[in-house]
Design brief:
The chain is mostly helical and 171 residues long. It is built from 10 helices and no strands. α7 runs antiparallel to α8 and α8 runs antiparallel to α9. The longest helix has 17 residues. The chain is globular, with a radius of gyration of 16 Å.
């Protein structure tokens, strides 16, 4: 077992364990990103969750490092049926540079995530990533407004609040 996997494994799934340590290792040594990325496909859901968290934090700091991984994010990672992986995927897609071909695919994927998952964290973070794209894409703004209207009365207060906040921006 590698040091990264060991740092991502074990403990309670409500804990991020040593994820911050892994992030610092990868930011210090870019070549470790490939190993970290491989753990998003691990058999252990805790490792997958923490790998997603670490990948999102690295993407926030070094989004261009993810250019070689975008296709796998849009295809392979998109197929992982785990709430925490999907919310981290939504966050990463809002951070990384996308080509003109990849951007509509990312938007379609985010819409699919919203249609598939009702978990409040997944919905909140996916709405934020869609907002990122809607700020840049006037054609998406109208559709995004309609999406937000659906969520402004959501049973989870945080989702409804996020939708109302974004509706004020995209009013």
């Amino acid at each position: 077992m590698g040091a990264i996997r060991e740092a991502l494994s074990g403990g309670d799934r409500r804990s991020l364990g040593r994820t911050e340590e892994v992030v610092s290792w990868v930011l210090a040594e870019r070549s470790l990103l490939a190993e970290l990325f491989s753990y998003i496909f691990d058999e252990d859901e805790i490792v997958r969750m923490r790998a997603g968290d670490a990948l999102e934090k690295v993407a926030r700091e070094q989004p261009e490092w993810f250019i070689p991984y975008v296709e796998r994010l849009l295809t392979d990672v998109a197929q992982i049926d785990q709430h925490s992986v999907q919310w981290h995927l939504a966050q990463i897609l809002g951070e990384v540079p996308l080509t003109l071909d990849q951007q509509p695919r990312a938007i379609a994927l985010l819409k699919r995530i919203l249609a598939t998952y009702d978990d409040w964290i997944v919905v909140n973070l996916t709405l934020e990533s869609l907002a990122h794209f809607a700020r840049q894409d006037t054609a998406l703004r109208h559709e995004f407004h309609a999406i937000l209207k659906r969520y402004e009365q959501h049973a989870k207060k945080s989702v409804a609040s996020r939708a109302r906040k974004l509706l004020r921006e995209f009013g």
